[in-house]
Amino acid sequence: MSPKPHIQVQNVLRLIALSGRPAMNTVSAVEARRLHKMGVKAAAGTPPEMASVRQFTVPTPSAPIPVRLYRPQGAVGDALPLVVYFHGGGWVIGDLDTHDAVCRGVADAFGGLILSVEYRKAPEAPFPAAVEDCWAATRWAAAHAAAIGADAARLAVGGDSAGGNLAAVVCQLAKTAGAPRIRFQSLVYPAVDMTMGFPSVKAMGQDYNLTEALMVWFIDQYLGTADRRDPRASPLFAADLSGLPPAQILTARFDPLHDEGKAYAEALRGAGVRVAYHCYEDMIHAFVNMPGFIDAGREAHTRVGLALREALG
What we know:
Blueprint: H1 7-19, H2 29-43, E1 50-58, E2 65-72, E3 80-86, H3 100-110, E4 113-117, H4 129-143, E5 150-160, H5 162-177, E6 184-188, H6 200-203, H7 212-223, E7 247-254, H8 258-270, E8 275-284, H9 295-312
Parallel strand pairs: 3-4, 3-5, 5-6, 6-7, 7-8
Antiparallel strand pairs: 1-2, 2-4
Helix pairs in contact: 3-9, 4-5
């Protein structure tokens, strides 16, 4: 008997089909963002309350970008561990609001600070704009940790999907630059191969929300004519993965990105990097954005938060 997604996933897929929502790759980027935001809001449930949530901007070489700082209830002290978080959305959709529930859920289990970054998006700001913004935000966070109540010596990065891609790239940039010191990377179904060369792209790219056609659309919007194998776009193709921070990598079985996420975990291990890998065998892409409908979404928030707690203390 062929495996199937969890019954809660099947119900979500049925709701999406019944909604009559057009495929995001058939509308404009602006309309795709609106549709995505509506869907995420419906599936977010009721996230944990925070002690405080602050929104402000941080400078980048191009222009200031918005960030949102989450401090969970019960967090004590003026030098808390900090995670700089990059949202998913194919470098085209997603923002601080679409990942509010994710950041709250992770912060609640983590007990430290989450700094969520709203980087520039394609097609208005194509590659490498998102990379430049995320790298600038990470360096800003390390340099100004004390001002936001964080400990620069306990810094991690994280992200899901396109955000996992950006977190992996930021770790590689920090390694090359020699600073800041990133202690841990948490990557949730990261996109690490822009050539779309793994079997799961086709095997899982039709019926499970994230389609192969949508992936092509996202990558074309983001990269244009840029080299798909540039490590700043495809961190799997970096020449040397040794010396990178310890990693947590989560994948979902019914996800076109499953194989590349697993391959990145294996490549990191092969380079001597400590990796905690876990596959959600009955989940689809973006399930962490659906804790109101899918129990595993909330469980993944907790899994990420506890890994960060263990890594950063």
